[in-house]
Amino acid sequence: MDNSKPLIIAGRDDGFGERMRALLNALYISKKFGFKFGFVWRDINNIQNLLDGKVLIPWANLPTREYLFDQDFIKSYYRQDIEFAYETPVLWSLYRQSIKNILKKPYEKEWGWYSTQGDLSEYFTDVDEGEYRTELVSCWKQIDFSSHVKKIFEKAHSKFLDIGKFVAIHIRTGEVIHDEFYRNILYHCRYKIFPYPFALEIALKEIKKGHRVIFFGDDLNLIQNLKEYCSFNKQAQENIFSIDDIIAFEQLDNGYDRLLFELVLMSKSEYIFGSGTTGFSRCASWIENKIFINIFDHLSLIEQYEIILKYIDIENIDDLYRSCNYFFLFLLSEQLNLNFDIKLRYLSKSLRYDSGSLNSEVFYINLLLQNEKFKEADDRLEQVICKNKKKFFDLLLGYGQNPTFPYDIYMNYYFKDFDQYSNIFYVACRIFSEFNIPESRVNTYYPNFHPIIFDQFKMFIFKDLPKSDQEIGAVKKIRNHLAYKLGVAAIKNSKSLWGYIRMPYVLSYIRDMHKESQNKMDKKSISLEYYSDYESALKEKEGFVYKLGQIIIKAHKNWHKGGYIMLWFEVKKLKKEFKKGK
């Protein structure tokens, strides 16, 4: 590898739009600063579209490297020796700094930098938007596509000449609605979706201005249904098209060709309406320097709320879409400070149309907790845990997906006497436990949240436990040993069912607090034998409580060798010894 110049690598591994935006940015940086350009392109196979091909999935229609690019382009710039970068910082270390800092060592990687897919004029403080967008058009033309792909681009351009001027509305839904995993992380993906009521409102307004409108999107049934809804209006009949109306007359061999045709045709529009985090329609706006309108910025909160209410119950809409839009109404009602009953009604309707939505369930329970309806929340949790325990905690605690829940989703489980509600208490313990693991996904995502959870647990769970006594005296010092503290806690919590349930969390907490207190203590302390109650202290040390604590410490140290399995037998043996008076 030539190390004379740093590399700028386009290495995204998600959908086509985000990959191509990263590639365009890499070309821009390469041209501007003389970096060596390279790209990574992992082909994804064996992914199927949904609903008999009517819902298009990004990875099912992602062109392969050989299909998309010319062989000379691949030979010159494809890097087999570099991994894709979907979860790498991709320039985050320079966010809101000067773009010139990429010239300074150390680079993000030994060889240079991964390219971001974000808008560099927003990413850096000194990238001129006009110059940047003009150069992106030039960068697109610089890419050597395969001869077949070039023919698809020519077809799209020819079709544009037939159609004339139009406005593009990109209705991004697809797998976010129709795949259970994505539905359950709807809050995380909410700005990727283009709500269908917005599409109707914008389309009808645009034709009143005398514009043609083309609906682009990944759910072909939805697009057709929206077009048919608009057919009551003669002007709409003549000026609103679905992408299928146009593609039906073209010879497109597969999903790759359809995706490429749509991208280029969309880029010919006057301007593009898209969702907040869509990569595909943003890419289309880049390659011809067209205006991209983020629908969530374009419409005020009250406009969004009123438009969804206006169109949410139109006919021939899949229940999963209604569920999603009722969840949006809930989020908007939160932002607009509407009352509890309205919020609860929207979440109830979201669950009516998608009874398996754990996303809506999490917010439903949180709404009850926020409004101190603890018994209702506890009963609701019992049902959810009974039916979907693993999926519920996977979602809540972020396994496999970075969580983006508001922090109060977690905090609301901690309130006065929350341990009186068994299911709420159980969830609170699970939250505490997960935040107590430094490498956990949820702890990584909320790096400053652990001490807050820790304090909440300390305040409420341990309110009835004996506090550490720091008074001077041999007996007092023995009772401040970790073994004694653990023994007391174990005995106290063995007297009730909930005590048994919370015991692991209690013991974990005591270990952590003891370690923290020991670090703060003066190491030069007086030996036990100098105290007048030395003999009593020795008896305490030989007592059942202290010995029990020692067994617990031993079990913890040997957990990988089955220490906790042996703990039950050791405790039984200890009790037997003390009953016999040793």
Automatic annotation (TrEMBL):
Protein name listed in UniProt: Capsule biosynthesis protein CapA
